[in-house]
Amino acid sequence: MDIRKIVFFLAFTGTYFQAQHSEVQEALKKCRKEFNKKTCLADEDKDSILFYLDNCPTESGPIENRGCPWPDTDKDGILDKDDQCPEIAGPIENNGCIWSDTDGDGVLDKDDACPIIPGLPELHGCPPKKNDCKEYREKANIKFQKFKTDYADIESIYDKINTIILDYMMKGYTKTSASKSAYIYIKYISNNAYFDEHSCYDGIDNEYNFLITKFWNKKALEHAHTKYGKDIYLSTKLSYEDLNALRAHNETLDYIIKYYDQETMKIKIPGKNKSTIGANFSMPIIVTFINPYLIKVEDAKKEMIISYEYKDGQWKSYKK
């Protein structure tokens, strides 16, 4: 090894340990101003860390956490330092995160042979074949009607967070040089995302459609339109007939249908500034519902994912 590197290493090491020693001395000095010497040098919690260096002097904890016990914020038995979802309780088998049910059929993805297609538990989460469709659709409709009843007030709950999320996701975009010609792109309505002619599943996720129109409702879309003055594109292609069928008793769809574009078969809410279509000019926002009270918001361009959970009457966010 070069002699100059050795000298530099020794000098750096000496400086580091001198700084550490100074910090320890300063901590002891500070402690002595409040307590006597005996207390400062005691180890009441028997964790081998002296009182004046122990951030939790009455609770035993490891030296790596300055004498404090490792927390378990979500009380799932997995310490925060080992928990991939420290704020949301989940099993150890999934690293402290809850198991997802992407298609909302009540069968967890880990046990679901068709994780993106709603199905029946007795068929391992897959829909039955065509000849059994009547019973399948009756059950699906009963399940959906119950879902709507159970979450009849969900729109008022989403109104507490939807515009806040929008404003947060828009930060940064409004300051770019291309922002004037940029447009907001929102994932909206599931329609024939998957269709198998041999299966009863028609590709429409009714629960998702119900929730997304309650989340990105008329109030939220008008907020985006008024505040940012940008074109707003909703992702899914729909025939006018399909959109009209979904529209029944839905104020949001009553609002957006007037912006339906026959040529693209999409909804475009025009802004003040004309947008330039293309990936470089899009401001994409994707909302995924783990369940109605636990959502994941993603901006693929910024590679940013934030989870929001509604608990005890308020929304909490957890950034990944």
TrEMBL record:
Protein keywords: Signal
GO MF annotation terms: calcium ion binding
Keyword Signal: yes
Pfam families, sorted: TSP_3
Claim: tRNA processing is one of the keywords in the record: no
Superkingdom of the source species: Bacteria
A biological process from GO: cell adhesion
Stated name of the protein: Alpha-agarase
